Amino acid sequence: MSPSPTSPRPPRVLLVDDSEETRQALRELLEARAITIVGEAAEGAEGIDLARKLMPDVVLMDVKMPGIDGIEATKMITSSLPDTHVIVLTTFDDDSLRQRADEAGAAAYLVKTSSPQLITDAIFQALGS
Predict the structure, then answer these.
(1) What is the pLDDT of residues 8-25, one digit of tens each?
(2) Which CATH number fits domain 12-128: 3.20.20.105, 3.40.50.20, 3.60.20.10, 3.40.50.2300?
């Protein structure tokens, strides 16, 4: 997949997940679709710091991580970086977590079993919002 016609460059994405295997799988999936991975973090606080430093277009954020969880990290990123969109990508298909993510400013809430196309589409949709 090539970059969106409305986007002059490939989306720049930051991966925040405490699982190295998950980050690696996401990196491979997204890079195969012409999406640039600008950084990776294994916990919420590190994700917040990298988001502020790297200014990604999109952050793919896990929920359950050591230290600052993904919901709180989402809130901190969306409140301080209005041009950065956060997509929560988690194992938990939970309505209360989905509501908390929405309240924190997440652009989307997806489960990790979502299709590669759905994840890719969510990234481009977040950029269009």
Answers:
(1) 689 999 999 999 999 999
(2) 3.40.50.2300
What's 4's DSSP letter?
P
- Going from the C-alpha of 60 to that of each of 23, 29, 63, the distances in angstroms are 10, 13, 10
Spatial strand order of the sheet with 36-41 comes to 36-41, 12-16, 58-61, 85-90, 108-111
Beta carbons of 114 and 87 less than 8 angstroms apart: no
DSSP label of 91:
S
Helical packing angle, 70-80 and 95-103, nearest 10°: 20
CB atoms within 10 A of CB 51: 25
Rounded to whole angstroms, how far apart are CA atoms 110 and 123? 11
Low-confidence ranges of the chain (pLDDT < 70): 1-8, 129
- Global model pTM greater than 0.90: yes
The whole-number pLDDT of residue 129 equals 60
The tokens describing 65, both together, are 């991580």
